[in-house]
Amino acid sequence: MSQPSAPKRRRATGRVTLQDVAVAAGVSPITASRALRGERGVAADLVERVQVAVRELGYVPDPAARALASAKSNQVVLLVPLLSNALFVDLLDAAQRTLLQAGYQSMIGVTHYQPEEEEALLRTYLMNRPAGLLVTGFDRTDTARSLLTGSGVPCVHLMENRAGDGLYSVGFSQEDAGRAMTQALMDKGYQRIAFAAAQLDPRTLQRATGYRAALGDRHDPRLEFMDAAPSSFALGAQMFDRVLADAPDVDAIFFNNDDLAQGALLQALRRGIEVPAQVAVAGFNDLIGGEQMLPPLSTVRTPRGEIGLKAAEMLIALMRGEAVEQPCVDLGFELLMRGSC
User: Fold this and answer.
1) CA separation (Å) from 205 to 126, 128, 198, 264, 335?
2) How far apart (Å, rounded) are the C-alpha atoms in residues 27 and 37?
3) What CATH class is the domain 18-61?
4) What separation in angstroms does the CA of 320 have from each of 48, 73, 108, 265, 314?
5) What angle do CA 117, 123, 126 make, to 5 degrees?
């Protein structure tokens, strides 16, 4: 059954209401409410129509709608993939400090790189009517996108950039960064450059795209080593061994994250393999400890603290109803070519 187009929203916040759901489903607001509560007296076909409308409109039931209709929240939701990664800890620290100074409290959710977990967190947090949202990247379920749009809550995307009507983002080009490091290795004379990656989240895959673009016709798919397991020192050591076993003529390895690269450098020391004389090693993100490795790790410095700061400032402006002159902010990156290359 085709659904009527979404009605004009009645609240100044732009939030999808129960009335909107009822109109889209072709039922009364009372029937829509009863269907959402799971009451037995509602016909199955009406329940299905209401559920379809809820999914398409991104409606979030509000158990305290009357009490909260005119209230203003000071809570901001921050959704990140992991707290065990220093990358996101630095970002969260900067964002939270900035928000706190402006009078906002942070609610942190961890998605574990799972779009379904992010969707569940959004449903839960949006029921509390937060003042704003900071979310990581653009990879999410269609339902989560509808929730973000239908909530009417100001939202800024972190770590990636995408221009578009109503989109706000602060980050840098992961693809450009991957291309730049690969090109830097080529400029140093390395011919057989492997790409070793873990976690395989969208930002990692964008770096891989940059790696391939830099190599062009020289790209050899056999020199890509991908592992969906979480990134770690131990996995970096294992991947170092795997690369050298499967492709002994490799003269440089570009790891998608510094913990992998640091694990690889430690494994090279254990095995007596000279870096960079026998094989060069490069990482990504400039995490703590890289400069103290033997040799110091070449890497891509990413502006994670500045991303947190600028994204929080942008969100504060949106929550205050102020115009944002630059909705898509690219903070760039920096190549750090140290002793490992």
Assistant:
1) 30, 34, 10, 20, 19
2) 15
3) mainly alpha
4) 38, 12, 21, 48, 10
5) 130
Domain residue extents for the chain: 18-61, 73-172+305-332, 174-301
The pLDDT value given to residue 60: 81
Which amino acid is residue 133, in one-letter code? L
pLDDT digits (tens, 9 = 90+) for 15-33: 888 899 999 999 998 998 8
Identity of residue 231: S
- φ/ψ of 158, rounded to 5, equals -110, 150
Convert the pLDDT of each residue in 140-177 to its tens digit: 999 999 999 999 999 999 999 998 888 999 999 999 99
What is the Cα–Cα distance from 129 to 64, expressed in whole angstroms? 10
Q: Which CATH superfamily is domain 73-172+305-332 in?
A: Response regulator (3.40.50.2300)
Whole-number pLDDT of residue 165:
82
The predicted model scores a pTM of: 0.80
Of 172, 118, 193, 139, nearest to 285 (Cα)? Answer: 172
20-33 residues labelled b (16+ CB within 10 A) or e (exposed): bbbbbbebeeebbb
What pLDDT is attached to residue 71?
A: 58
Q: If we measure between CA atoms, which residue out of 90, 63, 11, 150 comes closest to residue 308?
A: 90
Rounded to the nearest 10°, the torsion over CA 304, 310, 311, 315 is: 160
User: Which amino acid is present at 235?
Assistant: L
Q: How many CA atoms lie within 13 A of 237 on its CB side?
A: 9
Distances, alpha carbon 167 to alpha carbons 8, 76, 78, in Å? 21, 18, 17
Strand partners, 329: 170
- Cβ neighbours for 17, distance < 8 A, ≥ 6 positions apart: 9, 10, 11, 59
For 174-301, which CATH superfamily applies? Response regulator (3.40.50.2300)
